[in-house]
Amino acid sequence: MKKYLNINEVSKALDIKVHIIRYWDSIDPKTNELRIDGLSTKTKGGTRYFNKENIERIKKLKNILYNNGDHNYPLKIVNKYLSGNKTKIVNSYEDSYKENINYENIQKINQILKKLRLLVK
Description:
Layout: E1 5-6, H1 7-14, H2 18-24, E2 27-28, E3 33-34, E4 41-42, E5 48-50, H3 52-65, H4 75-82, H5 86-120
Antiparallel strand pairs: 1-5, 2-3, 4-5
């Protein structure tokens, strides 16, 4: 077996689309940090290569994110799990849950406002 695989070889071997691996291995513009640390080794030119450790990390990531074909957790939480920062996982999950609830509440309020505007006309 080769010491390093390119992104297409990893994509085929793990049955993950190339653009998804690139997304996981890219910098988040909001935080200017890698979305998931340690997914690839990059050359000076930016070409991604993957060794055994990188591939194992991607396998774990895929298993956590897509258990039984369902998308289970936000990427931010999985990254904290993979980095071993388990104490912040609960807080991140709660924050994510709160954000979703707030978004749902805002949507409901907007629907109510639309109905009220129609009634007022």
